[in-house]
Amino acid sequence: MNRCVPFSLAVAATLAALAPAAVSAQSMAADGQALQRSFPRNALRGNIVFFAPPAITLNGVNTQMAPSYRIHGTNNLLVMSSQLNGLKASVDYTVDVQGAVREVWILTPAEAAKTWPTTAAQA
């Protein structure tokens, strides 16, 4: 007697029920509806140039990414920094306590058009 069969059938039924919801969420983003992202209140706006990780230029100043950095693409998925070598982009970013860039969101043109603080004093 295989006891795993009822469990695996239940899991398969659950996954089958969830699949249409996942597909519809993907198709909504693909249909041109804008993805609404919310950025942390302490995020700052800047211009970045990516080099070989962890080197970057942020607002014209050579700096580095923090050891635990994350980069979010325009679709809000994580992007590997090695894919971005040489890319210049408008971004929102946060820094850690030591001043290294911790988290980066590459902005869409619509997001970049909105006003956002560029310095800690403005925030």
Instruction: Summarize model confidence as the mean pLDDT.
Output: 82
Instruction: Count all strands and give the number.
Output: 5
Q: Any low-confidence stretches, pLDDT <50, length ≥5?
A: 21-28
Strand order of the largest sheet: 1-2-3-5-4
| Secondary-structure element order, N to C | HEEEEEH
Strand content: 25-35%
Helical fraction equals 25-40%
Per the principal axes of the C-alpha atoms, what is the gross shape?
Answer: globular
Q: Structural class per helix/strand content?
A: alpha+beta
N- to C-terminal distance:
64 Å
Count of DSSP H/I helices: 2
Give a structural overview.
The chain is α+β, with helices and mostly antiparallel strands and 123 residues long. Helix content is 26%, strand content 30%. It has two helices and five strands, in the order H-E-E-E-E-E-H. The protein has helices at 4-30, 109-113; strands spanning 44-50, 55-58, 61-72, 88-95, 101-106. A five-stranded mixed barrel has the order 1-2-3-5-4. A hairpin with a 5-residue loop joins strand 4 (88-95) and strand 5. The longest helix is centred in the N-terminal third of the chain and has 27 residues, at 4-30. The radius of gyration is 20 Å and the shape is globular. The termini are far apart.
